[in-house]
Design a protein that fits this description.
Layout lengths: L2 E6 L3 H4 L6 H5 L1 H13 L3 E7 L9 H5 L19 H5 L5 E6 L5 H11 L5 E7 L1 H15 L4 E10 L4 H11 L3 E3 L1
Parallel strand pairs: 1-2, 1-4, 2-3, 4-5, 5-6
Helix pairs in contact: 7-8
C-alpha cells in the first residue's frame, strides 16, 4: 500500500513566532510521533514550508494577513522543535517543499512523481487547519480521485472555534477524521 503523510507548515513562526498560538504548540509531540512512525515505516513524508520574501506585505496574501512570517532564511521559516532533525538529515522518503501561498500544486506534483501516479492514502496534519491544511486537502482531493484522504485531529490546530468549524467542513468533503 502506498501512503503519504503531509505535514503542513509546522514551522517556528506558526508555533512560537510571529503567528504562533497556544493550540499549535500543544500538538508538537503528536506531530513528531506521527512523522517518526511514518518515516520508520518507510512511508513518504512531505513537509510544506510556508515561504515568503521581504516583499511579503506587498503581496495579495500580505494585504489579507499583514504579519510578516516564514521569511526565507529566518529562524521562523524552519521546521519547529524536534522536527528540525528531519530537515537536517537527507532521507529518501522525506520531501520538503517551499510554497508561497495557502495551497500548492507542488504537493500534488511531488506525490505523483514519488509514486508514479496516485497513492492509496494521503494523511494530513499541521497548521493552520482552516487555511493551509484545508487548502491542500482540497487540492489533493481534487487531483487524486481514488486516494483515501485523512486528517489527524490530534495533530492539527487552528485558533479558537475555527478548528471546530474547519474540521466540520473537512468532514463534509468526505475526508476521514482520525481521532
Amino acid at each position: 500500500m502506498s501512503k503519504v503523510l503531509v505535514v503542513v507548515d509546522y514551522q517556528n513562526d506558526f508555533v512560537d513566532g510571529s503567528l504562533g498560538f497556544n493550540q499549535s504548540e500543544s500538538i508538537a509531540g503528536n506531530i513528531y510521533a506521527l512523522v517518526a512512525k511514518n518515516v520508520n515505516d518507510g512511508n513518504l513524508v512531505v513537509f510544506t514550508k510556508d515561504t515568503h520574501t521581504e516583499n511579503y506585505l506587498n503581496t495579495r496574501e500580505g494585504k489579507f494577513l499583514p504579519v510578516e512570517h516564514c521569511i526565507k532564511g529566518t529562524e521562523g521559516h524552519n521546521l519547529f522543535g524536534e522536527l528540525k532533525v528531519f530537515e537536517e538529515e537527507i532521507r529518501p522518503n522525506i520531501i520538503i517543499l517551499e510554497k508561497d501561498g495557502f495551497g500548492s500544486d507542488k504537493i500534488v506534483n511531488a506525490i505523483e512523481e514519488a509514486f508514479g501516479g496516485e497513492p492509496d492514502e494521503i494523511e494530513f496534519c499541521g497548521v493552520v487547519t482552516n487555511i493551509c491544511v484545508l487548502s491542500n486537502i482540497v487540492l489533493c482531493q481534487t487531483y487524486f480521485k481514488n486516494a483515501k484522504i485523512s486528517l489527524h485531529l490530534d495533530s492539527c490546530a487552528a485558533i479558537g472555534n475555527m478548528q471546530k468549524y474547519s474540521v466540520e467542513v473537512i468532514k463534509s468533503l468526505g475526508v476521514n477524521i482520525i481521532e
